[in-house]
Amino acid sequence: MTGASGELVLAEHRGPVLVLTFNRPATLNAWTDALEDGYFALLDAAEDDPDVRAVVVTGAGRGFCSGADLQLLRSVREIDEASAADTARRRPRDLPLTLRKPLIGAVNGVAAGLGMVKALYCDLRFGSPSARFTTAFAQRGLIAEYGISWLLPRLVGHSRAMALLLSSRMVDADEALRIGLLDHLIPTGSVVDAAVAYAADLAARCSPGSMATIESRLHHDADGTYADSVTRAESLMLQAFHGRCRRRRGRPPREAPTEFSSPTPVRSSDVPVRDVGSRQEVPGGPAGVHGLAHLPRRVGLPRADARLR
Fold first, then answer.
1. Distance separating the N- and C-terminal Cα atoms of the chain
2. Using an 8 Å Cβ cutoff, are 210 and 102 in contact?
3. Which of 29, 202, 208, 250 is an S-S bond match for 65, by CB 3.0 to 4.6 Å?
4. Comparing C-alpha atoms, which of 17, 1, 8 is closest to residue 194?
5. Does pTM surpass 0.85?
6. Greatest alpha-carbon span in the chain
7. pLDDT at residue number 215
8. 306 phi, psi to nearest 5 deg
9. Per-residue pLDDT tens over the stretch 229-278
């Protein structure tokens, strides 16, 4: 694992899988702007690293993320004096939704408030028996933040999402699996190891370009019509077929398909792996940091009804 123990996010390469660990265990990995900056910088680097095929994110110690560090916020400025400038960020808070590689959460403990939102930004969530979820916002006098009012109903249904947001009650691992907050519950062993094994299997057996395109379509088709989805899919299918033909020309007949060993196309490529609207440079931001005029949204993938063993 790279990085000293004092770093806020640890990074570890396990073959084609990058494991990112929120590293404030004394606070159950309570969220800060500095932690977010480190996490997002590592996600940006993973996006452009051809050796990274998938990312697993987890928390150090007993928690995934206990939410925003309200004590730190109060030490800077009283909450009732906060202004729009205090909450502005040079990267959008939902930047994980724009990652074109599988992002898998390994929820090892409590995911509360903003921490729950960060877990929902993942494509899939693996959980240990100690995984717990709470929206927390209503009990803190806050609102449903950072898109959770959009994400949560699509995972668990409208009325259940309303109940979870209004009550802020704690959901244990068994219920989380049953209602769709978790996709896999790992009753024994390491939840991180299980998530890494799943991610490594995707890296070994699935085309990076295909996975990026599939993610893009799931994001956008959630709010479109069926007819629009079919039309766009037909266009992308032809482009995929043409790309396969170009890659196969001049290759020995028994050579393995290269689309499974090729990295995700770079973001400047003309390969149609994203369709998120125009990208805009953030005023005053560093090179390579972008805002999105239209952010895609991920929807929950079909969850496993049985526990993995």
1. 26
2. no
3. 29
4. 17
5. no
6. 68
7. 80
8. -100, 150
9. 566 666 666 665 555 544 444 444 344 444 555 566 555 333 333 333 33
